[in-house]
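TASK: fixed-backbone design
INPUT:
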């Protein structure tokens, strides 16, 4: 089962995964309409096994965000998504 940790700075984790030969995706909150639990620029790092650090929401969309990050890694392409 994938694990998660709340962190504000996720780059060190992402770099550690990469140094270990694992893939990872960096997810960044780039826009907010109305109120949001996390500020613009909040980030998540998603590991190829589904583990992640950081959060973009209060937890309601994290599973969908992880699934999209894993799919983007598989495709080798960036994505821009809107949740609401």
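OUTPUT:
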């Amino acid at each position: 089962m994938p694990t998660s940790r709340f962190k504000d700075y996720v780059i060190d984790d992402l770099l550690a995964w990469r140094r270990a030969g694992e893939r990872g995706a960096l997810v960044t909150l780039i826009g907010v309409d109305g109120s949001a639990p996390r500020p613009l620029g909040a980030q998540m790092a998603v590991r190829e096994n589904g583990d992640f650090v950081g959060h973009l929401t209060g937890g309601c969309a994290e599973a969908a965000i992880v699934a999209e990050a894993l799919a983007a890694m598989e495709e080798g392409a960036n994505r821009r998504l809107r949740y609401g």
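COMMENT: Strands lie at 4-5, 24-28, 43-47, 52-54.
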